[in-house]
Amino acid sequence: MANVNKPLAFRVRPQSLDEVIGQYSLVGANGFLRKSLEKKSLFSLILYGPPGTGKTTIAEAYAKSLKVHYINLNAVTCSKKEMEMALSEAKMWQPCILIMDEVHRLDKGKQDFLLPYVESGEIYLIGATTANPYVSLNRAIRSRCRLLEVKSLTEKEVGQGIKNAIANPNGLNGEYIFSNEAIDFIAKLSGGDMRFALNMVEEASVQYEAGEEITLEMVKDIESVPNYAMDKDEDEHYDSVSALQKSIRGCDVDAALYYLARLCIAGDLDSIARRLLVTAYEDIGLANPQAVMRCQMAIEAAERVGFPEAVIPLGDAVVDLCLSPHSRSGDESIQAAMAFAGETPFMVQDYLRYMPVNTAEEDKYPYDRPDIWEHLQHLPNAFKDKKFFQLDEKTTSKYLQALNARYKQLQQQGRSADLRALKKKKK
């Protein structure tokens, strides 16, 4: 078999936390991992952030700095059998770290399988993921791990990584010369992704000869499309997705179109569809229900025609949502109810129960009396006057103004739990 070099990014991986570039909030003097190393305290961790920012590299450097045995697995390819073998190996190396790439890809069964071993400290899990762990990982795993965000590298940090790789004996060993302009261009194009940058450096070293200065023009011949624009993995775009919603919320139509364009270039229709629907209901909501419906129709059209034509209905929807009246009244109302219900136990009133037992006919729900339904008390007595609906008094929406007026009218007429008395009212 031919002797082929491993990728440059792999060959120059840091071997300790001291060699990690950037991520000072984690590995700097006051960083959590640095403090953990100094106090020789080992933790299970979830490292999350964009691709190419060094999540797996940091995990391995952390293990090596602590001089702790570690095992590498990838959640996409590993089987239950491989996980069992890893745990058997861990028993022979205590303590032991299991580094799990793409940890968000572990199904619930595999996550549950790991729980007791992580709980007991029989194995320390360090998961690496491009996905938001609050969304992609179950609560049981999250509660047993410290969540640490690995941020995109700055252009300066990527540039330093490129220079290190060029000089590193395991890298290009100083045999290739890159102009400063070429290095700056690669760093800018990488979008904070060190792996992407080093892959470009390696491509240049293959295409051009050692000792020859590799210029900006030569690098442009290899690649000129920004890294984010080629990335089609929806899990790696939550920052752009978040920026899209915040731009719509702020009625910044130009910014919203820009972030939509980024996601469209990446072909990430699933993330766009989910976020636009959430944005429509959360930020526009009751102020313009028709815009919400138009958004849903635009998404259906985009999904039907696919890219590149999908950008047309999506662009229409984003402009419509940005310039529409906004109101978070509906979202704030349900969030208030969720917060209260989550900490307030209650019993449903007898006359509201599905199958009331031993209830007199006079006390049963009046299915045949629509005239008294809106006079009936539906909240438990303990908090019968609790208000969850958030009035939006500043709205310019005629529809929401009508809802506000209807709500006030219903509040003024009051409600009663005396069902017998209500039933005695004339129909």
What can be said about this structure in brief?
This protein has 427 residues and is of the alpha/beta class. It has helices spanning 8-11, 24-27, 32-38, 55-66, 80-92, 108-120, 133-136, 139-143, 155-167, 180-190, 194-207, 216-222, 227-230, 238-249, 253-265, 269-284, 289-305, 311-323, 329-343, 370-373, 398-413, 419-423; strands at residues 45-48, 69-74, 96-101, 124-129, 146-149, 177-178, 213-214.
Structural write-up:
With 427 residues, this protein is an alpha/beta fold. Helix content is 52%, strand content 7%. The chain contains 22 helices and seven strands. The chain has helices at 8-11, 24-27, 32-38, 55-66, 80-92, 108-120, 133-136, 139-143, 155-167, 180-190, 194-207, 216-222, 227-230, 238-249, 253-265, 269-284, 289-305, 311-323, 329-343, 370-373, 398-413, 419-423; strands at 45-48, 69-74, 96-101, 124-129, 146-149, 177-178, 213-214. It has a five-stranded parallel β-sheet with strand order 2-3-4-1-5, with helices on both faces. Strands 6-7 form a two-stranded parallel sheet. Strand 2 (69-74), helix 5 and strand 3 form a beta-alpha-beta unit. Helix 10 runs parallel beside helix 12. Residues 229-236 have low confidence and may be disordered.
